[in-house]
Specification:
This protein is an alpha/beta fold and 303 residues long. It folds into two domains: 100 residues, ATPase, nucleotide binding domain (Nucleotidyltransferase, domain 5), CATH 3.30.420.40; 159 residues, Nucleotidyltransferase, domain 5 (2-Layer Sandwich), CATH 3.30.420. It has an eight-stranded mixed sheet, with helices on both faces. Strands 4-3-2-5-6 form a five-stranded mixed sheet, with helices on one face. Helix 2 packs across helix 6. It is built from six helices and 13 strands.
């Protein structure tokens, strides 16, 4: 969730030879469920990138608009970015546009852009702003909100509007569970009210291991009453995250005088879902949804 820099990137081009239902009432919409066979190359394909602290996730769509058809997708660990052009992307249908979200830092961004030189377009990166795609940014300094948080909020608000259809709009709580955990609040009008940041499971455990003697133990299970150290550590981290989500739901319910919809996303979201006492819809593609929404709105503005 690092602050982001300038949106477009300009550089010289080179020629290269170059996703079921979970327990506790949660639901997941796998990204793979949206893949359709494309018989001929689309006129305007769109590449969406989500570059986190651990992995790069990519998705190729037939157009830069909400609910576009997914052509292909994948993910690689950051240490394998330099092989994308020769492996995963080598035979990919050439995208005509690209929009990405990155929190991994400038050095990683440069490595990603080197691989993007496989195609003839200028890479663009989403950055937080005072307002975009129907969402207003309530951060004290709007441009300092992490790009991943901003894009996920935009994707969540667009999803809620599509789900409620002709019913009244609802406030939201948006949870991203990854290396770090964020818990965001959005009112029914689309105003981002603020959010929480807390360490993910891995950071919690590493902090305990480094700061406390004798806690280097295997990963345990989530238990209501843990009776061994492994289960105690795993349960403690899980319930800490669950407690933050539940507290934010209470805050939003009181502030908005309405029951919020809760979306959960991120690579470790499925691990958290069974331990939640509030209803959360598990959504795999929230950042991609946000990128599609942003790209569509920008195209409409420039027409």
């Amino acid at each position: 969730m690092k602050d982001q820099g300038v949106s477009p990137s300009h550089k010289h081009k080179r020629i290269s030879s170059l996703s079921h239902t979970r327990p506790m009432g949660t639901h997941i919409l796998p990204l793979t469920a949206r893949i359709f066979v494309i018989t001929k190359p689309p006129k305007m394909s769109f590449l969406a990138l989500d570059v986190g602290n651990t992995r790069l996730k990519w998705a190729l769509f037939d157009s830069p608009k909400p609910r576009a058809t997914l052509i292909d997708h994948g993910a690689v660990f950051l240490e394998n970015i330099d092989r994308l052009g020769d492996n995963e992307w080598r035979n990919l249908v050439a995208p005509t546009q690209m929009l990405g979200c990155i929190v991994a830092g400038e050095a990683i961004r440069r490595r990603v852009e080197e691989q993007l030189e496989l195609w003839d377009f200028t890479p663009h990166w989403a950055v937080s702003s005072p307002a975009e795609a129907g969402v207003t940014n309530g951060y004290d300094h709007p441009t300092r909100l992490g790009a991943d948080r901003w894009v996920a909020v935009i994707g969540a608000y667009a999803r809620m509007r599509q789900q409620v259809k002709d019913q009244p709009l609802r406030p939201l709580v948006v949870v991203m569970v990854g290396t770090a955990v964020t818990v965001e609040a959005i009112d029914a009008s689309g105003k981002f009210l603020g959010g929480l940041i807390l360490p993910g499971h891995g950071i919690m455990l590493r902090a305990l291991e480094s700061g406390t003697a004798g806690l280097r133990v295997p990963t345990g299970d989530v238990r209501e009453f843990p009776t061994n150290t492994s289960d105690a550590l795993t349960s403690g981290g899980t319930f800490a995250i669950a407690g933050a989500v539940e507290r934010m739901v209470q805050h939003v319910r009181t502030h908005c005088n309405a029951e919020p919809i809760c979306y959960m996303t991120g690579g470790a979201g499925w691990k958290m879902a069974p331990s939640m006492s509030v209803h959360c819809e598990l959504v795999e593609s929230l950042i991609f949804d946000g990128l599609l929404e942003i790209a569509d709105q920008r195209l409409k503005i420039h027409k």
